[in-house]
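From the pipeline queue, job 12 of 40. The input is one protein chain; the requested action is below.

Action: predict structure.
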Amino acid sequence: MFGNPPPRRWFDPPFGDGFDYELTYGPGTPSADGFTKVEVGPGFFDIDVFVDGILVESDLDFGETFGFGPGVRKFRLAGITPPVDLADSTAFPTFLDFSGSPSELRMTGIPLANGVPEPGSLALAGLALAGLALSRRRRFF
């Protein structure tokens, strides 16, 4: 979402390096119901799994399955490299299994804290000046 967007500008969807997953159950659901396992899609390696803010698995790779204990209804996958386009629903395929009959599954992207890195303007200016100096030098010799 872009708040108060100015017209005539290029916009890029946010990129992220993680997702939060949450199951919602109706009243009377056994407390043991929740996620049972997760597996990341092809091309992704070294993903971290967090439950309640605690790292429970590091380096989850494609083809590996992480199993949760009973009652886990929220978890986070983080450390996706390279970052993925959060607006693209196919950018980070994830296999999920869970018990019971949840009323909702929510997958929320975590935007990069500093956005997508851009080249430093000072380095670009220095490169431009070096290019000008080099082209000028060639004219005299």
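Job complete. The longest helix spans residues 121-140.
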